[in-house]
Amino acid sequence: MIYYVLWGVSFIGLILGVFWLNLLFFKEGKRINLKSFPYVSIIVAAHNEEKNISRTINSLLALNYPKNKLEIIVVNDESTDNTINIVKKFKQVKLINNKHKGIGKASAVNAGIRIAKGEFFGVLDADSEVDKDSLKTVLTYFSNEKVGCVITPITVIEAKNLYRGLQKIEYAFTAMIRELMSRINTLYYSHGVLSVLRTNLIRKLGYFDENNLTEDLEIAMRLKSKGYEVRMASKALTYTRVPGTFKDLWNQRVRWYRGFMQNLIKYKYVIFNKKYSLFGGFQIPLNIFSLIVLFFVFTLFSYEIIRKLYEWTIKAIILKFEIFSIGDIPSIKHLLLMFDVKYFFPIIIVILLNLYLFYRASKILREKARFFRLSLLIYFIVFPILTMFHWVTALFQEIFSIKKKW
Amino acid sequence: MVKKKNLTRALFVSIIIGTLIFSLGLFVGYGLDILRIKDVSVSLNEIELQTLDYITSQEFIDTFGDDKYCEILDSRLSSMTPQMVDLGQRLTDYEERNIFTGDEYKLLKSKYFLLEIRAYTLFNKLKNECNLNETLILYFYDQHHEDSDRQGYVLNALVNSDNRVHIFSFDRSFEIISFLIENYDINEAPTIIINEETKFEGIVFLDKLRDSIA
Fold first, then answer.
1. What is the ipTM of this complex?
2. Which overall architecture, per CATH, does domain B134-214 show?
């Protein structure tokens, strides 16, 4: 049974994989180079960021952009460490204190938007940095009036342990997928590592949702639901630091996935709605379908693993651990003949397609694609399982409306 | 931005390429099935040749006489059984994964059972004639049956720990061994017959088996 399910999943995965790969060969839409530089405000929400805030501000000050057209606003979100004093040392930076409290950083960003003078504003987390040409590149996408938000590909820096290493690979894949989604105008994400938005548009749409767990996803979905485009500026590089412990990663992901569920319910009317073209008719249903498949495959595999463990336990008990062995090592010929190609061939091709996407993603991020490393193997095997646990926990918490302090 | 027409074309091309790759997987899979059949057939032929070799040797020694009659034949027959066990294991592995089924497979497995019966008969004859201290076990099992699988573990462990034990396993569902089923009055799986004397119905554990062959 499990093999037939796997077979069906791999067939669909194969078609989708080839489809995404196909998009790589489509040319990007034309962008117009900037003739004049619009005024831009960059909003940095900071909560106890004394370790990182200097680097973040320095990267903004190093931007290859006219200084008289750039406004840097740091919104102090009730920091109790030395963040304020550090920011005060930068004379070019406007420092304000956030007085409204929400459940995320949205209230801090909104405080920044209220005073922003820029035609456009960028959101940058206080643990992130930007490449000096990133802002210029991002702004070229706004030559299309329908573009409401432009995001950037994120490179994980300081990926010194396994958790961070896995996230670095994940972020590379995500950058690639988002780039492809951007090409077919189905991208509906924004993030806090330099997403640039039209200031007046966001004011008109009612600012960021302060009661949303993932306000950046929400604003992107809101823009899409109002007919605006979200684009990815694949050549605008940005850098971030990611959670380095199991607990931090767990909390972050559960929050993201709960936020995704909440926003999916909020914007459920776009699903299969002709008005929303590929976004409602293809992308959102595809993401829901992928989640269902992930859950289904995970359940089947869990059942299979538990069944095998039970069998091994019984075997050990029956044989009283006396002459319990894993058996002889099979020959290569035997292994080859034991391998059921018709089930695994499509899966192997899907993995190869993924590796190619990883190679392309590394090119986008201007990094060397390293295929022979343990973290890549762990990423393919362990990360989907971990992700499934995150989703199940998020679903459980949503169903039982568990309130958490993020 | 990608045009809708190009997108439809991309989807269409993807479905075609995806289906082609998928078909290629099926094609390679069937190619491997042929290799599996060949692999099993070669092993069966080898066992058949060994049996013929044994019978010929026995007739020769019977006719022209040799002091080491029992020694020679025992070693020949003993060397045949591991190959038989190995082939049986391979057939079971293929079967467990449902990657090798169909008429051809049934035919090969039937042939395997017949060769096992022949080897069992020859071994029994030699054992009686030469008073050998070998234990011959007939094991009847059902496919995808929990207790049969577990009995398999026990018997494997027994063979691994004692090289004087020889197992001849039979799938109860095969028509070709119906005369064995009738002869030994096999009503359930697993059933074990030890040295034509002791019969165990239902799962038997290692200690009890060792006691009965001691």
1. 0.71
2. 3-Layer(aba) Sandwich (3.40)
